[in-house]
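>> received
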Amino acid sequence: MSDALDVVRVFFDAVNRSDVAAIAALYHPACIVEHVFIDDSAVHEGIERVRAGWTSEFARYAGVLPGGRRVDVHRISGIETGWGWARADWRSAVKNDAGIRYQSGHSHFWVEDGLIRRHRTVAREETSASIEATADRPVTREYPSKPVVGVGAVILDDQHRVVLVKRRYEPLAGQWSLPGGGLEIGETLESGTAREVREETGLVVDVGPVVEVFDRILVDESGRVRYHFVLVDYLCRPREGRLHAGTDVAEVALVDPADIGPYRVTEKARAVIERALRMVSGTTS
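>> returned
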């Protein structure tokens, strides 16, 4: 794994699992870490110092985000000014005996040959309200000047049942469909998929391979384009959380694909689900 953005994704997944061994495996032996740990502004050099720092961090603070996660990463991006540099923007919530600490900030990573050579963080204290507040998003995507990129999730549990949501708003208001929504500016496809799933269903998922990419264009009575989406659907597995109806949806359901008929999902959604099931079973025909 040499791509800097992929390394950063794996890194934060390990942080949310409090997996010191997995984190240490991502650092170069001669790494430099700056201002990364809470209440520790020191610069640490070398893998053993970094391993000790993360061990202490996990012993002092526990994550309080859904599923016990420590950090919610909402953007991972490359930095144009330097080859191998990546930036992650995040929010965190952890607790110790003194209470809960909320922070937001960003981290820079210099990744070389698949290992983190340098890691530095800028963090600021926040309140519960500021962390939980969602970013302002357009209320409607009607009559866009350009196609809107959307992401969707075929969430299959261990019994190969699929999660469906009943839309509260247009398009498809009152209809059952797969969870998903519009991608936000600066957000990766995978991060957007995970965010939409969490907001709509309460589930934290592992975002897997792409199932299908397609477009959906809806016109009004005059023939004017009312909606134009380019959609990327991912195969996802639930990891944590409790299934419940969240934002933008009226109901949620966990359905055996053999019993999907009464939900009257679109033919396209049905085809995407069937393709995801073939991917899980190891067939692609």
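>> The CA atoms of residues 151 and 189 lie 7 Å apart.
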